[in-house]
Amino acid sequence: MKKLLLASAVSVALIGTANASEHSGTYAFDKEGAHQFITFKISHLGYSWLYGRFNDFDGEFVYDAENPENSTVNVTIDTASVDSNHAERDKHLRSEDFLHVGEFPQATFKSKRVVVDDDGEADIIGDFTLRGVTREITLEAEMLGHGEDPWGDYRMGFEAETEFRLKDFGIPMDLGKASETVEIKISIEGIRQ
Question: Is the pLDDT of residue 9 over 70?
């Protein structure tokens, strides 16, 4: 896998260089401040790239600085919030050909385990549910930073990516071999609770 979202969706915060437990804790996604993005990229017939995002999603992660492998992440995505900057295309993406949002209004990611490598990057393995189908995916995650913000809160940010085949999640639309796989990138900033 090329390693890019959902996504959706998320687990860079699970790795890191840190001193003891000073930044361990539960972090809620900064949804109010909109310091979070889930974007996707898919080939359009092999001729160009189609980019988009999900505007409405939420989640939290638990970071264990002493044992990053014990960290967790959960994400819920409102599939109707898909936005490819084209109203008619977005209507099609919400239809039964793709996300079928009337039947499946949410996509979710729930981590099962975290594997940290020698470079401090992590693979976050978890169950991704999209269009009613649950499969295990791997998010390649990297911590971007952490610390106190100007308002007295403690924040941590990360980026993660994954990719998967549309048909693996029951998406029936077939646009040819070049468009079989979607890449997802997630950028999250969490506020410690």
Answer: no
